[in-house]
């Protein structure tokens, strides 16, 4: 097999996101831009959904929570379905079907007023992502491995760029939604649908009918072998522990910010800090890790960093600081969580092709999200229950710090591929 391409040094062109993007194949460029567009369209609507349901429609708080939970379940929980369909029917039909459902869901949500109608629209929106996201993610991972085997650079660089594109979309989407919200929520939904109309048209024209090297699997039985794959299940636990800690940006962190600052106004700045770090530092950090760490060590380093971020808040919480001093531990959590995320997310996605059965990459990619989503659902409920007890307020943060450590210990002892080198033939 050819040796990996030599990487330019000293601030060379390929160290920049645009240079890395330009070096990709046309199909990979399309898929990276797809992730950007998906997140722009989705996050133009999602941040404003809860307020719309509670204020404009008048839903009770518990019902708003139920609707949001159903959306998460219909998306994250059903990723494994979308992945299996991708293996059976190919990337193109699953992506196109998901785009059609997302357009219909956003359009429906913009006009929905009755509870049943809102629930149906939200379920449709979630299931749409359960179709197209595993299809795109699994093909990006497969193409990244093929690119690596051809000596065109480590797979983690491609997956890091994919993460950057998604984060950029998650940053731009709410800005667009906030502008359109001056009209009304329906305009926001229709704009989101419009983004997916463009994505649908672009993919109908540019996405190949058959992608070379991607075989379709007709035989059943892949799920049975998957649930017996200890190495893959350990990876799911590690990825789930990271996502549970990340989910505290929306669960524990607002509580801590409210306590320290007396309002939730600083949240916007903390979220901006996280997004800015990913967009600017993801690729340099991935390149640094690729020179020094294999996939397992990259995962372990990321999980330890995330654990440290949670421990910072746990250690500072008994002091009860308020004001700027009270916000510093939370800022430390955001910083360390984001750094850990930048190590864990590309490495986990890069590891899946080495663990998946031949022809089952879509199933394994979807199962990674579904299994970790179940961990987040269970863990978030547990964290919420701990908040309602009389235990010291540092306890939930200590639990969160312990989980990534445990997950890191469960990871397989070695990975077939280095974070910055091609896999063994």
Descriptive key words:
425 residues, 0% strand, Growth Hormone, Chain: A, transmembrane helix, 76% helix, MFS_Transporters, disordered N terminus, globular, mainly alpha, MFS transporter, membrane, 2 domains
The chain-level structural class is mainly alpha
CATH class of the largest domain: Mainly Alpha
Strand content: under 5%
Radius of gyration: 21 Å
**CATH fold-level topology of the largest domain:** Growth Hormone, Chain: A
Overview of the molecule:
With 425 residues, the protein is mainly alpha-helical. It has two domains: 22-211, MFS general substrate transporter like domains (Growth Hormone, Chain: A), CATH 1.20.1250.20; 222-425, Up-down Bundle (Growth Hormone, Chain: A), CATH 1.20.1250.20. 76% of the residues lie in helices and 0% in strands. It has helices at residues 17-22, 26-43, 49-56, 61-77, 79-89, 91-111, 115-149, 155-180, 185-206, 222-226, 230-247, 252-261, 266-292, 295-316, 323-355, 361-387, 395-410. The longest helix is centred in the N-terminal third of the chain and has 35 residues, at 115-149. It is globular and about 60 Å long. The termini are close together. The model is unreliable at 1-15 and 417-425 (pLDDT under 50).
Could you write a compact summary of the structure shown?
This protein is mainly α and 425 residues long. It is built from 17 helices and no strands. Helix 2 packs parallel to helix 8, helix 11 runs antiparallel to helix 15 and helix 13 packs across helix 15.
Secondary structure: elements and pairs:
Elements lengths: L16 H6 L3 H18 L5 H8 L4 H17 L1 H11 L1 H21 L3 H35 L5 H26 L4 H22 L15 H5 L3 H18 L4 H10 L4 H27 L2 H22 L6 H33 L5 H27 L7 H16 L15
Helix pairs in contact: 2-7, 2-8, 2-9, 4-7, 4-16, 5-6, 5-7, 5-16, 6-7, 6-9, 7-8, 7-15, 7-16, 8-9, 8-13, 8-15, 11-14, 11-15, 11-16, 11-17, 12-15, 13-15, 14-15, 14-17, 15-16
